From TrEMBL:
Keywords: Glycosyltransferase, Golgi apparatus, Membrane, Signal-anchor, Transferase, Transmembrane, Transmembrane helix. The keyword Transmembrane helix applies. This is Hexosyltransferase. Belongs to the glycosyltransferase 31 family. It is found in: Golgi apparatus membrane. It is an enzyme of class 2 (transferase). Its main location: Golgi. One of its GO terms (molecular function) is N-acetyl-beta-D-glucosaminide beta-(1,3)-galactosyltransferase activity. GO terms for biological process: protein O-linked glycosylation.
Amino acid sequence: MMGQFYNSLQVTHQISAPLVDELTSTTAISSSGDEGDPLLTSDLFVENWILEGHRVACTEGKRLLTILVISAPDHFAHRQAIRSSWGGIGSARKDVAFAFLIGTSLDPGLHEQILNENAEFEDIIMYGMEDLYENLSLKTIHGLKWIEKYVYLCLPINISFY
């Protein structure tokens, strides 16, 4: 039975609307079987952009493909390697764009370096939550929400995912 393998968390309500607009409710279950207070994703997900990647965003329906690369704040060399290799397609083709999705860092010096990097390349999307492995799912949700807000609504045709 599925509950035997996933006894620490039980989903009680499924997402039924496009992307992440609908809230899901989860109830924490301890190993003894006692239920905790419900935990709503609205308590975890707050749309708070620090850098919004405007260069990558809406281009009046001319964007064919947008690629989001999940990155960590201190991975400057990795981002530069991507820009100088396959990520360079964004500068060669105007219908393709890519951006790096990162969270915030508690290190003010690192935060300043990221702002400088974005001033040069304008390809960083930073959301207002600490960049931790534990927040990876929320980082992904932020990426989907960013696509919905800045890219999806600019498509020249009506595409339905549901």
